[in-house]
Every structure is written in structure tokens, then in C-alpha cells.
């Protein structure tokens, strides 16, 4: 509303006259207050108040759902919670924090305040397929073991959104990057392409080739690598405040220790051959995740 619609006394914060005063906008103020009150009653009766919308949102996203424990190894079609070892928080999503670069893409963070399983914090693994018509109903999906270096997708709980949402990470560009760290962005998106393809790797670099194709134990930590870019899913102590409180940013970045990490190839004079010595270069705790299926 233009400032010309107010009297000098109103603009200067002076005392108000009664509605019987014939100068100024005092009667209009009373009518406006009555109109606002009627609008409030109408919105309250139709359950369209902002407070009611927030309560409905929290009631849906934070309703407690029990988890089912694994039988030794990870399987598809089984809802779990992903715990980051650096932030000691579970991966969660916020459908109010929308990314406008995509049709349906939302922020994902880790929350140390999450102490129970709910749709906001529950995910499951699916086998990745390039066939766009691969999706089927949950009751029709076969339960299969999840293996190391196998292409998978990480899917959200169906109560969160009307369409399936997948863990998604696009290429870094001037228009796509994580909000605070400026690393590769990680979102929850309805996009069905190669950018929502991930693989699980063993923590020990010397055992990754050895365990390739074997089931992933459910009681051991692991790495989650983005198949398209080779970046690791990570979370650091970078504050990311939202409606749910104090949380931490998730991005795709390889956190590696500093120093020399190449393989040393010394020549063995006695055996007349090169003996290979593997230097350990284990990823830092920001990249380490665990599955929690009982909380």
C-alpha cells in the first residue's frame, strides 16, 4: 500500500484518533482490521492457515515407522537409515527446500537430531536400470542382495512425495553446486537418468577388487560413490539451517588425507623383479556411511 494512504500522524508513529474522526484514514483502518479478521476465520475454518499446513507437513514427514532388520547383508526393497560418521547424523530430506533448476528436486542433509525412523529419514536400495519402464510396484519388486560395485539407486519413502524421488547428483557447473561448500551438489529428485546411479565400495582400498560382486554386510561401514562422476557421497560439519533445525550439508566430494599416496614400486635385486608396495590412502570419515535398520 502506498505511503500516501496514511496520515502524517500514522507515518510519524503518533497517537491514533477514534473512528469518528472525520480526517485521515482512521475509519479505513478499522474496516481493514475487520477484513483481516474475517479472512483469518475463513482460512481457519478451511484449515488453510500457514500454521495448519506446517503441522500437516510435520505430521506426515515425522510419523514414526518401524524398521525391519537385515539378515546379515543389504537387500533391495528394504527401508533403512543412512548414518554419516563425521556428522553423526542421518540422511534426511526437506521437500520445502526446492531446487528450481529441476521439475521436482529438493535438498538433502544429515540431521544429528533425528532419533527415530520416519518417512523423512527412510531410504531403500534399488537395482539401477537404464530402461525408463523398469519401475514397478513395490510389491512386485524382487528382493535381491546389494553387492559391492553394483549399480544401484537410493529411493525415498513413498509417503514423502507423490512420485518416486531418487538420490541425485548433477555435474558441477556455474548453475549447479552445493550451496555452502561449492562442491558437487546432491539432491533428491524425480529425474530418472544416469545421475541417480550409485555404487557401494569397501572401506579398505586393498580389498575393493577382492570383494567386488559379493553382498554388502549390513553391519559394516562403506563408501557410496556416484557412478557418473566418481565422487563420493559425503557430509561435513557445514551448518544448513532449515525448518527442522540445525542440520549439515551433504555433497559429493572425495575427502582424502594429505601427503604422498602413489604406489611405490621398488626393484628387488635378489629376485630380479619389481615388488609392489601398496600405500594405504583410506578416505576420510566424511565419506563413511553406515546402515541403521534398528533404532
Q: What tags apply to this protein structure?
A:
295 residues, Trefoil (Acidic Fibroblast Growth Factor, subunit A), nine-stranded antiparallel beta sheet, two-stranded antiparallel sheet
Describe the model.
The protein has 295 residues and is an alpha+beta fold. It has one domain: Trefoil (Acidic Fibroblast Growth Factor, subunit A), CATH 2.80.10.50. The protein is built from three helices and 15 strands. It has helices spanning 8-11, 26-45, 50-61; strands at residues 81-84, 89-98, 105-111, 123-127, 152-156, 166-168, 184-185, 187-189, 198-201, 223-226, 233-242, 245-252, 267-268, 273-274, 289-292. Strands 1, 2, 3, 6, 7, 8, 11, 12 and 15 form a nine-stranded antiparallel β-sheet that branches. The chain starts with 7 loop residues before the first helix and ends with a strand. The model is unreliable at 272-278 (pLDDT under 50).
Secondary structure elements and pairings:
Blueprint: H1 8-11, H2 26-45, H3 50-61, E1 81-84, E2 89-98, E3 105-111, E4 123-127, E5 152-156, E6 166-168, E7 184-185, E8 187-189, E9 198-201, E10 223-226, E11 233-242, E12 245-252, E13 267-268, E14 273-274, E15 289-292
Antiparallel strand pairs: 1-2, 1-15, 2-3, 3-8, 3-12, 4-5, 6-8, 7-12, 9-10, 11-12, 13-14
Amino acid at each position: 500500500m502506498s505511503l500516501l494512504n496514511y496520515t502524517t500522524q500514522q507515518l510519524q508513529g503518533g497517537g491514533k484518533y477514534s473512528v469518528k474522526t472525520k480526517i485521515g484514514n482512521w475509519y479505513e483502518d478499522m474496516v481493514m482490521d475487520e477484513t483481516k479478521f474475517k479472512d483469518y476465520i475463513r482460512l481457519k475454518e478451511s484449515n488453510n492457515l500457514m500454521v495448519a499446513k506446517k503441522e500437516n507437513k510435520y505430521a506426515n514427514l515425522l510419523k514414526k515407522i518401524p524398521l525391519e532388520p537385515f539378515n546379515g547383508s543389504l537387500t533391495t526393497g528394504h527401508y533403512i537409515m543412512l548414518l554419516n560418521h563425521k556428522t553423526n547424523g542421518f540422511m534426511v530430506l526437506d521437500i520445502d527446500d526446492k531446487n528450481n533448476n529441476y521439475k521436482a528436486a529438493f535438498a538433502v542433509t544429515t540431521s544429528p537430531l533425528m532419533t527415530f525412523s520416519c518417512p523423512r529419514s527412510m531410504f531403500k536400495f534399488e537395482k539401477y536400470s537404464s530402461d525408463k519402464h523398469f519401475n514397478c510396484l513395490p510389491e512386485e519388486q524382487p528382493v535381491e542382495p546389494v553387492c559391492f560395485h553394483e549399480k544401484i539407486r537410493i529411493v525415498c519413502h513413498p509417503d514423502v512425495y507423490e512420485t518416486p524421488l531418487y538420490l541425485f547428483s548433477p555435474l558441477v557447473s556455474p548453475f549447479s553446486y552445493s550451496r555452502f561448500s561449492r562442491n558437487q551438489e546432491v539432491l533428491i529428485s524425480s529425474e530418472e537418468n544416469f545421475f541417480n546411479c550409485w555404487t557401494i565400495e569397501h572401506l579398505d582400498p586393498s580389498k575393493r577388487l577382492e570383494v567386488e560382486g559379493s553382498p554388502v554386510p549390513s553391519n559394516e561401514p562403506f563408501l557410496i560413490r556416484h557412478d557418473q562422476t566418481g565422487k563420493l557421497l559425503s557430509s561435513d560439519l557445514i551448518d544448513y539451517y532449515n525448518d527442522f533445525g540445525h542440520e549439515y550439508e551433504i555433497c559429493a566430494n572425495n575427502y582424502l588425507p594429505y601427503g604422498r599416496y602413489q604406489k611405490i614400486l621398488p626393484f628387488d635385486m635378489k629376485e630380479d623383479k619389481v615388488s609392489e608396495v601398496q600405500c594405504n590412502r583410506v578416505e576420510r570419515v566424511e565419506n563413511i556411511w553406515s546402515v541403521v535398520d534398528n533404532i
